[in-house]
Q: What sequence folds into this?
């Protein structure tokens, strides 16, 4: 079997490891033994692996990468530094041991270009190490060409629900942004939103000033209606297209509208009254105003509302007549100071921005409740077409979206003369539910909004899938790059180091709020992930010159949060001196203490301890100050003994593996 597969696909596809499995992974030594032997566990930075170094600013991420480059150059290899941040200080790099005259430097214009350079050098096998600084600076070309966050208008309706609940609501994007700004929203993180992948967590809503004066492009299909900027993408046949690329008769990709819960909170008569109020009721000037007011040209409908309010809430009001000018019919107006119960139901029909909406208990009500609400709305703001089919009119897209969920088959119509008014028509036709019928350019809004979800999409009126072409673009770019690089890096034996930055998660209350940029792909494809943090001043993070009291450097803590070539979750301390680079001699002394070659003194006046005075180090039955051990020839003897202890430990482990 092995021979046949190797003959078909090439030698080395399938092989038996044998004794090779007990050998250490080939690596590049960094002259920092605590880093190489203890932290990584394989004697250095592993060859043919992807490594991620991340941490906060000024921690020393680039310094570690430059130190490793210097070690690779001393070993006779070439190095490529991809300076995506365009901020490499060559003088500082020279201090850290980099031979800048033989360093290959690339300063790409955008992320795709940088990753293509990396892939080309990996395939060429011309360099020993490649450093990318940094992932957050790998900006996708589409992001540079466009303007981030420009998507939809304030009134775009979306389908949301609270986590763990089956009660679906229809909200305007702008109202979700207002909720996001409150402490309640950030504390609970309670919303889920309908996407092309089903219900996903709502990560946030972005609001941005329309500084480039972008005009909204409205797209109307047979069953949907959406207004977006050119940066925003819609789907046709699974492919993203901007509104300018779409054509009439194209069929947009859609998803089925969500399944609503069934709750019996509203009687049928109240549903009819609320439907009529959504159609003909006057919107209060403030959210807290509880003045119920409806008007219509037919007195019988107003009298029916008056009667229903008296039966349901025990309150009533007078009907006044408002004469119409220019031959128009008189208008009958019913105005009532609402009770607490009537005020609650009235406010449920009004959004945070004082627009009309279908109440959530109607959307999730029984079939009878929905039928009565639609009937009440039609009596208030509907008519029959020439073919005796009901039509519904409203300026609020949230209302149209709510009615659409309650009617089996509908068609959306927008008149060019009245673009703000949307007509929903009951239809029996078999046309495609999302066939584009009409385009027109709208106004230039002052603000634009973008919905951030885990899937990068959201669903709006008619089940249309909206997708911001920038949303998650860098994560998708890194995911594609990892798929291409992983195999090539292993074959070539090149060390690829990605330097990454940290960001704060949105709305995190418990747990670690930090995350890295570029999505999750790099976390999975990295064999080693190193977290670098500078110690605080109270923990001895500053290295002070004892004579001049100047700040000479800082001490950093390095932790391997992932390690496929050694023991994970270890951490070590390294000293970075700004004038000379990393203190390799001090690190050797620390490693000698780890291996037991040198011991830290514990002897005091009251306790004999290990026989070595406290503050001193014992080495070969003699006591030394820490600084004395870094001087020749004691240091050479110390290094030899430390590595000898390491070799004995490795030989013992190999012998045990042979026995097993």
A:
């Amino acid at each position: 079997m092995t021979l046949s597969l190797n003959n078909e696909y090439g030698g080395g596809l399938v092989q038996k490891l044998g004794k090779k499995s007990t050998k250490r992974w080939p690596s590049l030594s960094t002259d920092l033994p605590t880093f190489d032997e203890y932290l990584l566990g394989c004697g250095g930075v592993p060859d043919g692996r992807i490594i991620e170094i991340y941490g906060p600013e000024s921690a020393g991420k680039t310094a570690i990468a430059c130190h490793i480059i210097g070690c690779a150059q001393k070993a006779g290899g070439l190095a490529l530094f991809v300076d995506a941040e365009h901020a490499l200080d060559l003088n500082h790099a020279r201090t850290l041991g980099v031979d800048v005259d033989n360093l290959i430097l690339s300063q790409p214009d955008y992320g795709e270009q940088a990753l293509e350079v990396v892939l080309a050098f990996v395939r060429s096998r011309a360099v020993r190490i490649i450093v990318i600084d940094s992932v957050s600076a790998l900006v996708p070309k589409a992001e540079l060409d466009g303007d981030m966050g420009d998507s939809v208008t304030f009134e775009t309706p979306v389908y949301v629900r609270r986590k763990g609940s089956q009660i679906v609501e229809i909200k305007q994007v702008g109202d979700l942004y207002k909720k996001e700004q409150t402490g309640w929203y950030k504390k609970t993180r309670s919303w889920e939103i309908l996407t092309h992948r089903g219900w996903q967590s709502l990560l946030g809503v972005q609001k941005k000033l329309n500084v480039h004066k972008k005009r909204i492009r409205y797209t109307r299909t047979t069953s949907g209606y959406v207004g977006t900027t050119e940066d925003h993408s819609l789907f046709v046949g699974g492919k993203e297209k901007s509104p300018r690329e779409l054509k009439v008769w194209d069929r947009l990709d859609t998803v089925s509208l969500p399944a609503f819960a069934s709750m019996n909170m509203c009687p049928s008569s109240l549903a009819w009254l609320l439907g009529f109020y959504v159609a003909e009721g006057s919107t209060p000037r403030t959210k807290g105003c509880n003045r119920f007011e409806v008007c219509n040209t037919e007195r019988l409908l107003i009298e029916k509302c008056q009667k229903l309010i008296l039966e349901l809430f025990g309150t009533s009001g007078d009907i006044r007549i408002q004469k119409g000018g220019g031959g128009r019919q008189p208008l009958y107006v019913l105005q009532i100071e609402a009770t607490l119960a009537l005020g609650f139901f009235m406010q449920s029909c009004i959004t945070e921005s004082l627009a009309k909406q279908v109440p959530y208990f109607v959307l999730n009500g029984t079939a009878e409740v929905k039928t009565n609400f639609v009937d009440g709305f039609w009596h208030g703001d509907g008519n029959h077409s020439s073919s005796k089919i009901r039509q519904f009119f409203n300026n609020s897209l949230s209302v149209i979206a709510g009615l659409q969920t309650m009617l089996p088959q509908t068609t959306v119509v927008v008149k060019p003369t009245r673009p703000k008014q949307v007509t929903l028509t009951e239809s029996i036709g078999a046309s495609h539910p999302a066939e584009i019928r009409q385009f027109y350019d709208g106004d230039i809004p002052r603000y634009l909004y973008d919905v951030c979800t885990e899937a990068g999409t959201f669903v709006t009126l008619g089940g249309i899938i909206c997708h911001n072409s920038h949303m998650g673009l860098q994560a998708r770019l890194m995911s594609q790059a990892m798929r291409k690089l992983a195999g090539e890096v292993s074959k070539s034996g090149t060390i690829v180091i990605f330097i990454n930055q940290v960001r704060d998660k949105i709305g995190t209350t418990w747990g670690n709020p930090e995350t890295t940029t570029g999505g999750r792909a790099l976390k999975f494809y990295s064999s080693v992930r190193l977290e670098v943090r500078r110690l605080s001043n109270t923990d001895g993070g500053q290295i002070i010159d004892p004579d001049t009291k100047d700040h000479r450097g800082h001490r950093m803590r390095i932790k391997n949060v992932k390690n496929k070539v050694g023991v994970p979750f270890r951490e070590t301390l390294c000293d970075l001196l700004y004038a000379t680079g990393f203190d390799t001699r001090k690190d050797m002394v620390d490693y000698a203490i780890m291996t037991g070659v040198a011991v830290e003194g514990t002897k005091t006046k009251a306790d004999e301890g290990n026989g070595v005075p406290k503050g001193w180090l014992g080495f070969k039955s003699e006591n030394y100050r820490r600084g004395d051990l870094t001087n020749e020839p004691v240091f050479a003897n110390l290094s030899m003994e430390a590595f000898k202890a390491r070799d004995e430990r490795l030989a013992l482990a190999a012998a045990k593996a042979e026995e097993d």
Residues 583-660 form one domain. The longest strand covers residues 551-563.
